[in-house]
Design brief:
Blueprint lengths: L8 H51 L10 H6 L38 E3 L11 E4 L4 E4 L12
Parallel strand pairs: 1-2
Antiparallel strand pairs: 2-3
């Protein structure tokens, strides 16, 4: 009689267990890499926002963008007093800006809105907190890790 060829149940179970162990080791690495990528994006976006706010201040007699008109002042052209043109094309009157194509989205909140700097508590519907008096901006408190707002 010829012996049948194939895998035994024990061999298949051993392979399944080994694959399960490998998956348990590898999957957390992907999760950590995703969080690291979001932190990196957040830091890059904050650097961009902060540098463009500083440029705005330099061009507007050390005045930061107004909180109420923040998005327009950062994404449209403006005059020396910060009055926006409603356009992204500079002309003789509105010769400053635009500083950003659009307000970046906070990768932890998927929001790009700006709310007033709220100290220890923030408006959960916005991605950024802005302090008009100084021109400071930071990530709004998020549900993943409240410490991300201090980057």
């Amino acid at each position: 009689m010829k012996a049948k060829s194939g895998f035994t149940l024990v061999e298949i179970l051993i392979v399944v267990v080994i694959l399960g162990i490998l998956a348990a080791i590898v999957i957390p690495q992907f999760t950590e890499a995703s969080t690291e990528a979001r932190v990196s994006t957040l830091m890059s976006d904050l650097q961009t926002l902060r540098s463009q706010i500083e440029l705005y201040k330099v061009q507007h007699n050390d005045n930061p963008p107004d909180f109420d008109d923040f998005e327009a002042q950062m994404t449209e052209t403006s005059d020396i007093d910060g009055v926006t043109s409603g356009s992204k094309v500079a002309d003789a009157t509105y010769r400053f800006g635009p500083y950003l194509q659009a307000i970046p989205t906070n990768p932890f909140k998927d929001e790009n809105g700006v709310c007033a700097w709220a100290g220890s508590a923030a408006d959960d519907t916005n991605g950024w907190e802005y302090k008009e008096a100084t021109g400071e901006i930071r990530a709004a408190r998020d549900s993943v890790d409240p410490n991300h707002m201090d980057l």
